[in-house]
Amino acid sequence: MMDVVSLFATAQQEGRVGLARKTRPIDARPAMLGEVIMTIIAGGGKETQSKPAEAGDMVVRNRCDATGGEQYLVKSTSFAERYEATPETADAQGWRHYRPRGAEMLYFIVREQDGSFRFDAPWGEPMVAQPGDAIARNPTNPSDTYRVAREAFTCTYEIVREPGPDK
Predict the structure, then answer these.
(1) Angstrom distance (rounded) from CA 132 to CA 149
(2) Mean per-residue pLDDT of the chain
(3) Tens digits of residue pLDDT in 106-155
(4) Is residue 166 part of a domain?
(5) Is residue 95 part of a domain?
(6) What single string gives the DSSP state of each residue in 75-130?
(7) Over the stretch 99-120, which tens digit does the pLDDT of each residue have?
(8) What is the DSSP string of 123-160?
(9) How far is CA 125 from CA 47, 91, 119, 121, 149, in A?
(10) In angstroms, what CA-CA distances link 58 with 53, 54, 165?
(11) Residue that wins the pLDDT comparison between 165 and 146
(12) Would residue 167 count as lying in a domain?
């Protein structure tokens, strides 16, 4: 199991960390109490599995054809910080449109020389990172570090600042 916090620190020392923000709108619905969401990336298989949903948690569905519109669970407090509702009403299944609030995240791209590795996601489940994936981190909470599959990162994030020394 890789220590992703140390790996992130190394990437920062090497000038490989940039800044990005999620910009693509998503769909979300309230999670059912105890619901477990398995995140599946098209062509890549299982990414992770959530812990059982608690009251107020939301199921998010990315609007990204390249990843198969993968779903994941977001805790109620994180969801409120990261997304805002649009005027559209929910559909029959409870899905509603939301837009990201544009919070900036630190990130680096896993290199070929880093290889594939496993680490514990903030929700306690193992994640596998592969070359080309992004490792994203909340700048104010280093323990909030997770993998974003290459296709999902390309599809849903915009680069605010490219990696490089003294940035």
Answers:
(1) 8
(2) 90
(3) 999 999 999 999 998 888 888 889 999 999 999 988 888 989 989 889 99
(4) no
(5) yes
(6) -HHHHHHHEEE-SPPP-TTS-EEEEE---EEEEEEPPGGG--EEEE-TTS-EEEE-
(7) 999 789 999 999 999 999 999 8
(8) TS-EEEE-TT-EEEEETTEEEEEEEE-HHHHHHHEEEE
(9) 10, 31, 8, 5, 16
(10) 8, 9, 38
(11) 146
(12) no
Nearest to 101 by CA among 71, 80, 70, 122: 80
Q: Is residue 122 part of a domain?
A: yes
**Could you give the number of structural domains in the chain?**
1
Once rounded to an integer, what is the mean pLDDT over residues 74-82? 90
How many residues appear in the chain?
167
Burial group, residue 124, by CB count within 10 angstroms (0-12, 13-18, 19+): exposed
Q: Does the structure show a pLDDT above 50 at 167?
A: no
In this prediction the pTM is: 0.82
**Domain span at 124:** 4-161
Q: Does the pLDDT at position 25 exceed 50?
A: yes
The span from the CA of 148 to the CA of 93, in Å, is: 26
Q: Compute CA distances 43 → 12, 50, 65, 66, 151, whole Å.
A: 30, 20, 11, 9, 10
Close Cβ partners of 22 (under 8 Å, ≥ 6 residues apart)? 82, 100, 102, 103, 105, 156, 157
Place of tokens 């899905």: 95
